[in-house]
Design goal:
Strand content: 5-15%
Oligomer: single chain
Largest sheet: 2 strands, antiparallel
Strand order of the largest sheet: 1-2
Order of helices and strands: HEHHHEHHEEHH
Shape: globular
Radius of gyration: 17 Å
Distance between the termini: 13 Å
Number of domains: 1
Number of strands: 4
């Protein structure tokens, strides 16, 4: 990777591969199929908040994010993204999400955050609320409505509804909507990683659309 590419590379990275053949009607029952994941994610997100609070105090004292807590929180975001991609956050795959915090190389949705060797002790007190407020406002405007692991409100929910209608009518996923939906999720998860104190790199105010991160695109 070139020096310039490395400089621009985001520490929080979301990727997705659209399934070439999607069922026309499976999306109608994915709310039911995703329920086991939803139940587990409720408890995982409670633990996520607790781990983030514990990490805050650890960073204040040591300047480091405890690696077990970091890996756990990365896994919770990863699991949530896989379920959203399968269900009503994207409808991008018919392959059932795995029950694991770890990355699954052959699954079509991925989320990674580079572990920071050192974090600012001062920023940890303000970045999760004060510094992130502009992003919160933009994302509330763009996304709106409910935000749960298996479904989305606002713009993503509307776009996913269009996808379901298109699948039922044509059996094809509109590629323009795929690019936009993945871009919106990428923005939201970058902000989530920053607010969870997992990186000091401020999320860009940029809608990087498509299934690949910008540095991997031609």
């Amino acid at each position: 990777m070139s020096t310039e590419a490395a400089r621009r590379r985001q520490p929080a990275r979301l990727t997705a591969t659209l399934d070439p053949h999607l069922s026309r009607w499976l999306w109608l029952v994915k709310w039911l199929l995703a329920l086991p994941h939803v139940v587990i994610l409720v408890f995982l997100w409670v633990a996520f908040v607790g781990a983030s609070v514990a990490a805050l105090f650890a960073i204040l004292v040591t300047g480091r994010y405890p690696r077990p807590l970091f890996d756990f929180n990365t896994g919770v975001l990863r699991w949530s993204w896989r379920v959203a991609y399968y269900a009503y956050g994207a409808l991008g795959t018919d392959r059932y999400p795995p029950f694991t915090l770890a990355d699954v190389p052959d699954y079509p949705a991925h989320w990674e955050v580079t572990y920071p060797q050192q974090l600012s002790r001062g920023l940890v007190l303000v970045k999760w609320w004060l510094l992130a407020i502009p992003h919160y406002l933009v994302l509330c405007f763009l996304l709106g409505g409910i935000r749960v692991p298996w479904a989305s409100g606002g713009l993503i929910g509307l776009l996913t509804l269009f996808v379901g209608i298109a699948l039922a009518a044509t059996g094809r996923y509109p590629l323009g909507i795929f690019d936009l939906v993945t871009g919106l999720h990428r923005w939201a998860l970058r902000v989530a990683a920053y607010a969870a104190l997992m990186t000091d790199v401020y999320p860009p105010f940029r809608l990087d659309q498509g299934g690949e991160e910008p540095e991997r695109q031609p």
